[in-house]
């Protein structure tokens, strides 16, 4: 593991990257103990506080864990897909908010990904997945539910659909689509949507999964995508009309 002292990049960031690269390449294995802070400081020719900062960066990414005691130190962690969900969601949210991504493009991406997992979900869904989806659809039908709670329930429903595919890689990849894109879509469409229609579509999706009918799930998701785009266009048109009337 090496760094470039002449590089303008922060030394602790370089050290963190060098260790991360060693983990990814397999040079450092899961549960392997890293050299001590003093040993790393000598290896990279930096101060111990610089090494400590690098280790903090790696810990924040769940790539290493620290243990106290005589047999303690920093160890390579086994990163789980669930541990990486938050970072995936944050990155997706930032990408959508910082770049000029149209609603139609985001909607197309989200539903294309979700429809791709429908056959697996129809084949593998469990009773727990169905129960979650039924419970969220029922919750969404309650008249006193706030917009924020409806949005949270909407996310939970589609999270269950994705997780029903029984594939942790798919669940990880779609974490950003469902939990980043969907709330942003709801922020735009909540004033125009019919909760009753969304509940009907959600109930049909749950029915399709219960019957192992992937085609029915796919057709309903396509309808939901079309309806979501219609809502967005209605909101955009109404805002344009209001500006013109001023």
Report on the architecture of this protein.
The chain has 246 residues and is mainly alpha-helical. The protein has two domains: 11-76, Winged helix-like DNA-binding domain superfamily/Winged helix DNA-binding domain (Arc Repressor Mutant, subunit A), CATH 1.10.10.10; 81-245, Four Helix Bundle (Hemerythrin (Met), subunit A) (Up-down Bundle), CATH 1.20.120. It is 72% helix and 3% strand. The chain is built from eleven helices and two strands, in the order αααββαααααααα. It has helices at residues 11-25, 37-44, 48-60, 81-98, 103-116, 118-124, 127-140, 147-163, 168-189, 195-210, 214-245; strands at 64-67, 73-76. It has a two-stranded antiparallel sheet. Helix 4 (81-98) packs parallel to helix 9 (168-189) and helix 5 packs antiparallel against helix 11 (214-245). 28% of the residues are buried.
Summary tags:
246 residues; mainly alpha; Arc Repressor Mutant, subunit A; Four Helix Bundle (Hemerythrin (Met), subunit A); 2 domains; two-stranded antiparallel ribbon; 11 helices
| Count of individual helical segments | 11
CATH architectural type of the largest domain: Up-down Bundle
Q: What percentage of the residues does DSSP assign to strands (E)?
A: under 5%
What is the fold-level CATH name, i.e. the topology of the largest domain?
A: Four Helix Bundle (Hemerythrin (Met), subunit A)
């Amino acid at each position: 593991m090496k760094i470039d002292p002449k590089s303008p990049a922060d030394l602790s960031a370089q050290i963190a990257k060098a260790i991360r690269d060693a983990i990814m390449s397999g040079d450092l294995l899961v549960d392997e103990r890293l050299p001590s802070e003093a040993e790393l400081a000598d290896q990279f020719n930096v101060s111990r506080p610089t090494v400590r900062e690098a280790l903090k960066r790696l810990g924040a990414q769940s790539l290493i864990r620290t243990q106290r005691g005589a047999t303690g130190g920093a160890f390579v962690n086994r990163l789980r897909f669930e541990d990486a969900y938050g970072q995936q969601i944050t990155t997706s949210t930032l990408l959508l908010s910082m770049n000029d991504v149209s609603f139609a493009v985001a909607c197309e991406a989200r539903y294309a990904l979700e429809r791709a997992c429908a056959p697996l979900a129809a084949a593998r869904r469990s009773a727990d997945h169905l129960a979650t989806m039924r419970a969220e659809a029922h919750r969404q039908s309650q008249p006193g539910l706030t917009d924020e709670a409806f949005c949270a329930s909407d996310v939970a429903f589609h999270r269950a659909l994705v997780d029903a595919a029984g594939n942790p890689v798919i669940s990880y990849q779609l974490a950003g689509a469902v939990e980043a894109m969907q709330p942003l879509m709801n922020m735009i469409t909540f004033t125009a949507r019919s909760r009753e229609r969304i509940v009907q579509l959600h109930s049909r999706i749950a029915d399709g999964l219960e019957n192992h009918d992937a085609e029915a799930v796919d057709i309903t998701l396509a309808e939901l995508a079309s309806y979501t785009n219609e809502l967005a266009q209605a909101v955009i048109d109404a805002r344009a009309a209001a500006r013109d009337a001023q």
